[in-house]
Write a structure and sequence with these properties.
Length: 391
């Protein structure tokens, strides 16, 4: 009897799983446009990639929910396209899609009514998909309202906040600066204008951002110090991040010089992190060594995890003994901040690299003692102690 119940629940589980699989139409984009015009229904487009984990989560959760699919079938012509395939590539380019997954709501004339992107929960997707049906919340209406009165802060904010849901930040620049051009410098530091700046300004050399820097206290009073600092950090990150990804060191150092004009400790520390990222990704160990020797103590002296990260790079990539001795100082500082097994193992290996076997053995033993005390495996420390004795 127990076996029968087990088999019954196994079949039931498999059936319910099959019921929630993502099933979608294979309609072409061209046919969707024709059908949209014929049925007077807007088009919903999902752009995805099989390698995109966020896309896969959306497919296995939101779009495997029958209520979601029924809503889309009732209100939209749905188009699902992989950007790795021909039609998906064309749509990605046509709608200037950068992030995935991307959800674009258009009419039969290919006018974008609404767009969102990223991994989101079912309830929020449904909320946005319903908003996309409301003419008063759609982008064409909001844009028209704003352009008719570009000095109106509320109309500007409504437009750029909706635009931002699906567009990359660069596309927010034009309406944002159109509105801000109607404001005097003295008017900029208001709570509403701060929200517009926070949502739409991404140019580090813009008049508005420079005004934020020179009147930081005024904006902090209008909103909060944390929000102002976060905005400054985001703008610097948007300036430097692309070059660390593309390994474009020429543009990186040009933009870095601009970022360095911001005289804030948090920005100097952020630039230090990007310097290390670029050096590590491009395997420019000379740059990595110069950067860390100059600035490690200044920016990460009280962050044990960063000190250990730098020490690990030195262990693997740096051969200069004087530089390795500095890495030993940083690793010792790390275990002062957090007396850990991995910190002691790192110190042991660094000492072994400069042929100081006595110190290497002492720190490896420390690591082993910590592992024993915490009831962890001692294998790593034991193997290192054997390696030291064999040298």
């Amino acid at each position: 009897m127990r076996l029968i119940y087990t088999l019954f629940f196994l079949v039931l589980f498999q059936f319910s799983g099959a019921q929630n699989e993502w099933k979608h139409s294979e309609i072409t984009y061209t046919d969707a446009l024709i059908q949209s015009k014929k049925e007077n229904k807007p088009i919903f487009i999902m752009l995805y990639a099989t390698w995109c984990p966020h896309c896969n989560v959306m497919k296995s959760t939101v779009f495997s929910d029958p209520k979601v699919m029924d809503f889309l079938d009732k209100n939209y012509i749905s188009v699902w396209k992989d950007i790795e395939k021909e039609e998906g590539r064309k749509l990605k380019e046509q709608y200037q899609t950068k992030g995935l997954p991307a959800f674009i709501f258009i009419d039969s004339d290919e006018t974008v009514l609404y767009s969102i992107k990223g991994e989101i929960k079912t309830d929020f997707f449904m909320y946005e998909a319903k908003n996309a049906l409301n003419p008063l919340l759609q982008l064409p209406y909001l844009e028209k309202q704003f352009l008719a009165d570009p000095s109106n802060a509320n109309k500007c904010l409504a437009y750029i906040q909706t635009l931002r849901k699906g567009a990359d930040r660069a596309r927010l620049s034009e309406p944002t600066h159109l509105y801000l051009a109607t404001q005097t410098d003295q008017q900029l530091a208001s709570e509403t204008n701060w929200r517009i700046i926070a949502n739409g300004v991404s140019d580090i050399e813009s008049r508005e951002f420079k005004y934020v820097l020179t009147h930081k206290k005024d904006f902090e009073n209008a909103t909060s110090p944390a929000r102002v600092e976060r905005k400054i950090i985001n703008i610097v990150s948007e300036l430097l991040e692309p070059q660390t990804t593309s390994l474009d060191s020429i543009t990186y150092f040009k933009n870095r010089a601009i970022a360095k004009t911001i005289t804030l400790q948090t920005i100097d520390s952020l630039i230090f992190s990007y310097d290390l990222t670029l050096a590590e990704r491009s395997e420019n160990w000379g740059l990595y060594k110069r950067t860390t020797l100059n600035d490690t103590q200044k920016y990460v002296w009280n962050i044990d995890s960063k000190l250990k990260e730098i020490g690990q790079v030195y262990l693997k990539e740096i051969e200069d003994v004087s530089a390795l001795n500095k890495a030993i100082d940083w690793a010792q500082r790390a275990i002062e901040l957090n007396y850990s097994s991995d910190g002691n193992l790192l110190l042991s290996r660094l000492y072994l690299k400069i042929n100081d076997k006595k110190s290497a053995e002492a720190y490896a033993q420390n690591a082993r003692d910590i592992a024993v005390e915490m009831d962890w495996s001692t294998k790593e420390a034991d193997d290192l102690l054997k390696e030291i004795k064999a040298v």
